[in-house]
Fold these 3 entries.
Entry 1:
Amino acid sequence: MSRVKFACFLAPHHPIGENPTLQFQRDLDLAEQVDRLGYDEFWCGEHHSTGWEVIASPEMFLAAAAQRTHRIKLGTGVVSLPYHHPFNVAQRMVQLDHMSQGRAIFGSGPGALPSDAYMLNIDPMVQRDRQDEAMGVIRRLLAGEERFSYECEWFTLNDARLQLLPVQEDMPFAVASMISPSGMTLAGKHRTGVLSIGSMSSAGLDALPTQWSFAEESAEKHGNTVDRKDWRVVMSWHIAETREQARAEAGEGFFHWHNEYNVGTLMRPDLTKFDSVQQALGTNGDTVGSTVIGTPDDLINAIRAMQEITGGFGTVVGFAHDWANPEATARSWDMVARYVIPEVNGMLDAYRDSNRHVIEHRDSFDRAGDAIMAKIAENENAVKAMEEGAAAPQEDKPALAPHHAPDLKSAG
């Protein structure tokens, strides 16, 4: 497979208590930072309740992010299709693609929060079927199909056709996948990529080894193909120079996020509250899995283990959170770009080989020194200067400033 891409996924998950206006600005700062650091994709979601997830329109947020970034792809992670008329979704994605100059990725899902669906009076039993139906219509619209009509129990189109098409001839699609086969099945049916959000839970992690087979089976059934390079797996991390520092920076925030959001707000049945920060870190601090609070080496090992578990995927997606303060969080994303990305993708292998070759083949380069001495020997003044320099007392020789190389632990 080709190199692993790296992305950032902003749900967002912001603890209640801070100025929401400033939170939006800090989220845009994050998009700008990961673009500058060379991450490949930036995703943000759509939610309408819980008080923690406050972006209601990923298209609007990403349009703002497009003005502050240059090369990073911008994905809706995700638009909850049962909440919208498909024509309006297609129109917004076209506009985002133009405003980002062809960097949009259309990610969709059935809607993650039952509280959102309840407010909109949508039966959760119909959400996945509605996502499926809407995706088929949106695909036709974005392809520029001639005017067509469509009628079903929840929306109607009359002689519909987009008056403006995307910049990209084939805008990338992705579907959210949790634990059930639904997302993977839709990916195979509609030949899309996959955003595996379920990898953040223990149940979702356990399901990953068999998930891709659902996409392949569905693709074969519908005469399509799917490619693992379009599979994105979400992981969570906070990285620092040492495990102790990472735990000190993010432990308290991770503890409260788990207890107050996952258990206290979502009331996920497979989770229980931690009694202490130490218990939380002891369970999730440095273990290989989808959550890493530790060093670059810890994350490298976890990503490689995830590749083994899944059989291979195209993009590792870091889940954005507020476990640490903004300064430490920014350093974490920076360290991943500096040490983890190049190590996972073998970008330093040739450097190390060149360094090792020079060290191990010193005899091959001694002739260069012999050549210099030969030229000195041909010039009487040069010989005299060298002899005088060798005879001079040590204290008379000019002092050279020591070279201090950064004391950085190799990620390898």
Entry 2:
Amino acid sequence: MRSKTGESGGKALARAGGSPLAGTPAPSPAGAAEGKNCAGASVQRQAPTVYGALDLGTNNCRLLVAKPSRRGFVVIDAFSRIIRLGEGVSNSGELSNDAMKRTIDALRVCSDKMRRRGVTRSRLIATEACRIATNGAEFIDRVENETGLKLEIVGRETEAKLAVSGCASLLDRKCDWALVFDIGGGSSELIWLDLSRLDRQWRRSVHDRVDVQNCVAAWTSLPIGVVSLAERHGGRDVSDESYEAMVDDVMLGLESFESQHRFGERIARANAHFLGTSGTVTTISGIHLKLPHYERSRVDGCWLTAGDVRRVSKDLIAMSYAERVAQPCIGHERADLVLAGCAILEALLRVWPCQRLRVADRGLREGILTTLMAEDGHERRGISPRPRRRRGGAKSKSGRG
């Protein structure tokens, strides 16, 4: 359910004076910014809506708070914490008390940030861990009672679409095919896009507000993520043999999807690339770039080759757990999961041999924000409209008619 803050911002926002009609800018002076018209008379301009997007995954809790801008949106606050909500759920079928407590602590921080920033429109989603846990719905109710946040457990198709929307601006539209993938903690979303369905004449002028949903050729949600794979095979001490066992598991999970759609054959003589949005690809990128500390500005949008990915993976397999912890782009919170992510990516490269991978440090939250703002009529100024022809058929020089 897409909701306004009176619903999804919850009680914490309501206590702070959030309007029950939070998606509608307040008509009173308190909800508007005062300005002057060209004659000097006072006019009332409605303050821009403040948007919130929260992604509660199997491993991470992430929040973005943003305002619309001429170039899309400007982030005014953010939060990210590894909470491992899905720890053990693949074996027990339930969210553990410790995992739920860690998550609620993080969600209280998110609720406070949304309240302080005056979020007026939001969407708060929970994914695989809450989808598969027998006590997932009970946990969602507990979250609302303890933090005031009303989370929505989304289906896998919705998650896949949001992932595509969040990183669509990084697609190479000169390609014919692109695989967008999001390696999560409990599942991995895979979306093949047929970019030839875009109007080729306008590929260079279309930016990230283009609706790429009509380019989706097929998608699947693989019920394998870094947490579940590491719990099955071990993540701290990984040998060449155990790494290959992880890769084999993932390739087995892909067999049915590939036999049905045969994308390997489709891309064999086509121009195709991968676009990855997950902690796995951003970590690999940071290590490949030899960053002394993680820098989003250098990672987001960068290109890697398949050889780059495999060199980093090979180096990580050769490291001990302590050596992986010491890597500045990994740390102790990811050191037991990073090789499971590498194994998932290696399986994708073996099933669909692409030589180029683009890295996206963006995903579901950006997809939520983009979708909400589009619904409210905020269009990116960077999109070039189709030029209209003058009467008589001649185009104007400006291309705008």
Entry 3:
Amino acid sequence: MLISASLIVVLASSFLAAQLLLQQTPTQASVASIPYIGIAFAGNTTEQAIAQIDRAKNYTNLFILDTARNPLSRNQTAVYEIADYAVANGLSIILNLGISDPHENDSTTWFWGQPMTDVKQNFTERWGTKFLGIYDNDEPGGIQLDGDWERFFTNFTQRLSRYNHTAMQHLEVIYNKMQAFQANASTPDNYDLEANFFVQDVLVEGDLGLAALNEAGITTFTSDYGLYWFDYLGGYDVMFAELGWNASVAQQIGIVKGAARLMDKEWGAMITWKYMGHPFLDTPENIYNQMLAAYQAGAKYITIFDFSRAGNNTSYAMTDKYYAMLEIFWNDIHNQTHEDLSGAEAALVLPANYGWGMRNPDDTIWGFWGADDKTQQIATVMYNLLEEYSVKLDIVYEDPAYPVTRGGYKQIFYWNSTEL
């Protein structure tokens, strides 16, 4: 306790200068609501989960059991005990209980083996409004962008003979398209086939758990680091933008916030790793600023991923200094005013189905293609607008189902704009 108290004092003084700059002036609108603030627990035991709840319950209001296929999630008694304890201590809960996989032959099926309508009724009766929903799968867009498709398409003809279903047929069309354009040293005019494969084959029809949850009306969550627009199209209710990996915070927020605004969805931020090794997380000061940016931009959920790995051993990423920072953040948003930056200020409209990863000008498009003749121009326009608007910029796509006009933006810019 003495160590934690000392850290709070030290961190509070280091944040003071930033806070003075962020104070609201009388003419500014301030953020009016408190989001869900919490930690994504990825430990291995009930005791560890309860200890984390006890430590942070006075300055959080959300607990995410983010154990996925961890043996802990396969233990129904343990899941109930942890969730019961979190709710009894005033926290709302989101549960990650793995994925529904017909090829999986283990005991994960205690959850997925029952009708999701029963799950909704049982969980709601047990935890009431504190049960927010199910965290299903993880980083589907990132997996699409960074999948080893070159290796996948090796001996593709043999794969087709073994797996004769719709998704493989659609991949065959994409594969033939890639071969044709590579032969001509050109790039396609559109990426409609690729978008349809991801949204329909990977998510709508390929994720059986997501489909069952949606049909039952259970709110679905996941985190990602790209393609948020298409994650929403595939059925997710809430997307957490991953803030980390040295990516632009304003850009990640702009992509998820724009999709959420036009599709009338909710969004949040998941603070994740900056490094692949110790200390994994960014500095407490930088994470504080990332959380504050998400808060001012209108995030309904702000969480920290508390997991690290050393060899085959797993541990926590959060240490005393991060808990101290989290407590300071909690107190600040309750006791201070901060400018509301969530309004529909400006939007950048990208080409329809342009699944560019956006992490750098040479990032992949849908994981299948390299940069094309539009990429550099889009990158230049986007970076200029982010420099001007920061988190007040939404990044959206041309889509007749979700026209940009429904956002009520003061300024609308198109990817091929000549005004910048």
